[in-house]
Amino acid sequence: MELKLENKVVVVTGSAGIKGSIGHAIVFALAKEGAIPVLIDRNRRGFDYEKKLLEMGLDAAFLQTDVTEVDQIESAIRKISEKYGQIDAVINNVGVNDGASLDSSMDDFVASLKLNLISYFATVKFALPHLKKSKGTILNIGSKVALTGQGGTSGYAAAKGGVLGLTREWAVDLIDYGIRSNALIISESYTPAYETWINTFEHGNQKLEEIKNRIPLESRMTLPAEIADTVLFLISERSSHTTGQFVFVDGGYVHLDRALLSKK
Q1: Which domain holds residue 206?
Q2: What confidence tens digit (pLDDT) does each residue in 219-241 have?
């Protein structure tokens, strides 16, 4: 199936994670399809990814940006406009489950919202004139925590709940411009950050197996590559009549009956 993403300029926030992260998988999947990924992230690792893509003969750009600073996001979008003259899609991929809980300070809670929610709004706001011209797409990366709760992470849960609200609000606001807005919701995906978290437990491997056994489909975690594949589909013309949707790539974790698990 041809996705027709060639030469589409796709802005991806939170895209300079460690190799194997969701952002990394998305960026290199985009490049493989002929799109032009533009990485926005504060980590200098993005320069290495930009260099690698250019050495592969592919077009890409990295703009080192602290997305908790709105003026830096505005500056990054302006530079993208100057370089490419277009933006065809925005993938808001920032997400840090930072543990800002009811026991945390107000400053910690607000900081979590700045990173995990306000950055989404700002990126779309500044990219919007370009998205209107291109009839582009918006894809917000969400989390099951917005729907299930987790405990001890009020900031992240509130932010991800807000992301889902923005997704449908933008689908309504922008429908007359032909702009689609969707969210992709992830439950359990084994990324480098997830591995770091598992290793904080005394019996990490046992904890990991317990989590896997709660996932109905194949008792395994979602691969970043599987997430990237769905991302590409949702921003492509192949999903041209899909907007305002929450798409789950989670092996049935959120919706399927837990009675399934007793059969294993």
Answers
A1: 192-221
A2: 999 999 999 999 999 999 999 99
Residue 97's pLDDT band (boundaries 50, 70, 90)? confident
Find out whether 160 and 203 touch, Cβ atoms under 8 Å. no
194 is catalytic: no
Name all contacts of 165-173 with Cβ < 8 Å and 24+ positions apart. Answer: 166/117, 166/120, 166/121, 166/124, 166/140, 167/138, 167/140, 167/142, 167/244, 167/246, 168/244, 170/124, 170/138, 171/243, 171/244, 172/244
Q: How many CB atoms lie within 10 A of CB 53?
A: 21
Residues 113 and 215 in one domain: no
Question: Read out DSSP for 118-136?
Answer: IHHHHHHHHHHHHHHHHT-
Catalytic residue selected from 49, 156, 194, 253: 156
Residue 19 CA to residue 167 CA, distance in Å, equals 28
Q: Give residue 224's Cα distance to chain centre.
A: 11
How many distinct structural domains can be found in the chain? 2
